[in-house]
User: Fold Histidine--tRNA ligase from Tatumella punctata.
Amino acid sequence: MNDIKSVRGMRDVLPDETPQWQWLEARFRQMAHRYGYQEMRLPLLEPVSLFERAVGVSTDIVSKEMYNFRDKSGENITLRPEGTSGCLRAVLENNMCYHKTQRLWYQGPMFRYERPQKGRLRQFTQFGAEAFGMPGADIDAELIFMVRDLFTGLGLENHVRLEINSLGNSSERQLHRQALVNWFSHHQQLLDEDSKMRLAINPLRILDSKNPRLQTLIEQAPRLTDFLQQDSQQHFATLCELLDKAEIAYRINPRLVRGLGYYSHTVFEWITDDLGAQGTVCGGGRYDGLAELFSGKPLPCCGFAIGIERLLLLLAATNRTVTDHRHVPDIVVTSELSDGGISALLLAEQLRRRFTTLRVLTDSSGARLKRQHQNALNSQCRIIITLNHDGHIRLWDLQSQQQSETDNAGLMTMIAARQQHWQKSTPNSDRP
Ligand code: HAM
Assistant:
């Protein structure tokens, strides 16, 4: 038995699964294109300090979950735990928002050292979209429209729900934070150890506590909503109005704070009840203060990211899987000649050059002809070609069950006729 295993929480995507991935990736691409978002390809490695500053040292992601290491020059590097920070870094570094707005998207693996379970991996894949330089609630709404559009296109509209909240600006949050510290300090004797620690580091996180003994205290704690000034209230009200007009159902969840420290104003999550504990399929929001933290210049920003593995689990749980015939060969070339497969290889290559849309494979297993035929039948191909000892070429059409003996020129004519017939009978299929 092979005793070398993949790293815990990091999984292989096998050929059975890749068609589903490719199909979903095409959907993302199409959605981004329709909304005018352009693709960014970002490095997997970033400086640790990027996430310390952007996501925040007191968050679980930065304090516990990053894959940090020193490279050969002693630089402190990490495998990116998310895409937003790197995307903004790239936008600022390449001066992409000088007198310009940007709508961008990215896709790729992210890394977090979390406890693996269903829907939670240490290497997972996000599709993300970020909009830069646009301050209004219309862009928050546009991003939510995009996700709605995707979910509706996937037939998942009844399996996900949207929750939104406003986190206001930093001075409103500061006032709220102080009020929380006062409140929980006043009731310190009721707090558990975990919450006492959070009180010192990040009192907002106490609101996330699942401890049933704390729920009343949390319910009664000061709410951020009560600290929002007119501008923040207006931004949120506009978003709600736009969602209403676009007939997107949502719930305002005043306890939705998200686990990353960079958010301001709008935050949102799309949640499913079909996946158990890891039900957040998409998370996002506005992070207007972050660019200033990096570059000293303000830049309004807003975005979201979807977890692709979770979305695939949801599609499987709701029986929305694709059948993809592209991996099925059109022609398999078998041979009983004892020339080490050379004739079969050359014939297959001749067929590929002549019929450029056909998928042609050789059986290079070295098995006897009967076994080669069985392999070809198992592959569900349309035609089996056999090179016989007597110099003849046999064509076995598995659809009509016709078998014919021919020579090379005759074979080419027969395949051309069949290809034409396939194109006519299934013009829109994956198969040519
Ligand atoms: P996030 O909520 O940390 O937000 O992650 C977004 C999505 O990635 C989650 O909703 C979930 O579907 C998926 N995800 C997160 N962690 C895991 C994991 N360990 N295993 C599997 N899937 C996971 C962000 O990352 C922000 N950058 C989103 C954003 C973009 N905000 C503004 N722009």
